[in-house]
Amino acid sequence: MMSSIQPTVNLYKGDKIKGVWNHRQYRIERLLGEGARGSTYLASMNQDFVALKISKDPAVITAESNVLRKFKKAQGVKLGPSLLDVDDSYIINGVKYSFYVMEYVQGKTLSESLMNMGLDQLGRAMSELLKALNHLHLLGFVFGDLKPENIIIEKQTNQVRLVDVGGVTKVGRAIREYTSYYDRGYWRLGSRKADANYDLFSLAVCMIQADPNNRLKRASKDRDLLKLLSQCQTIFPYHSIIKKALLGKYSNALSMKHEIDYIRKRIVDSPVTRQYSRTKKVEIDRAEVISITTIVGLHLSILYLIM
């Protein structure tokens, strides 16, 4: 259930926050984002940049910091930012607010990068995300508010990272924080009960967003995502995968990842799509891509039959 407390905390560049218990001091640099559960700021401490989440509702800080602690259990996979500090601070007329500090993941959001991605880059990013989501699901959680704005392509490593854990929900419970366009309940394609397919649905909508001709806002009037998908020819090689994810046909995130990897290997490396990846101005011969996709579909069917 959402808190009735208005969680936004307005801070400004140069404001200083000192922890009551750990005595660490942070200088506010700028706002990174704010939502229904609090505000996140870029802050500095000893010349290092960090992300600081603060809320008027202490339960939000407790819940989200606990999620980040659980993320550490996924060995070898960075599911989200590393948790650095949890504390309280007396600010704004001596009122005490709870906050936590996490790693600042520097880079571009997926929303800033989607339109410039070739088919290979899109497939690679989705494959990485699905690997991370699979680990999260194995821990018993669903990311929930999965959207391009909550996905960062890290500047130093070029790897895909999940940020903003406000929507992370234990499997079986109701999703408490979501964004309409990425919510299967909004499109009448499923419930808001937390399960692996809820995240895979959101990921499929992210892939639709990679098509520069998508009309997501217009499609929302009719609530017809499948019709919209049929019009997104730029991402045609991934259509069958996206459709399965929208309809909840995958057993887990790894199943979707394997199919994306297979498509990348058989289609994205073909001369047609290599040419597309080099220049976004080249038109894909749809008939040729259909032919290749049909062959790949047959290979996948045979693969499932013999497994």
Automatic annotation (TrEMBL):
Pfam name, any one: Pkinase
InterPro entries: Kinase-like_dom_sf (IPR011009), Prot_kinase_dom (IPR000719)
Lineage top rank: taxon: Bacteria
Transmembrane portions of the chain: none
UniProt-listed SUPFAM superfamilies: Protein kinase-like (PK-like)
Ranges where the Protein kinase domain occurs: 26-307
Protein name, per record: Protein kinase domain-containing protein
UniProt source species: Alkalibacillus silvisoli
Organism taxonomic ancestry: Bacteria, Bacillati, Bacillota, Bacilli, Bacillales
